[in-house]
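Quick one: co-fold with FE2/S2 (inorganic) cluster.
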Amino acid sequence: MIELTINGKKVETEKGSTILQAALGNGIKIPHLCYDKRLLPYGGCRLCIVEI
Ligand code: FES
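Sure, here it is.
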């Protein structure tokens, strides 16, 4: 597990997770249209863009 901060909230996620997976897994909503955990990341809709 790794720890990171999203919108001021400390969260834990499995090493290798994407930021979107970490957010969704911790109840933080990020709009996402083309993401499906069963598929490889595609990055087509650009709805999940975040500032790091
Ligand atoms: S969910 Fe579509 S680009 Fe990220």
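If it helps, The mean pLDDT is 94.
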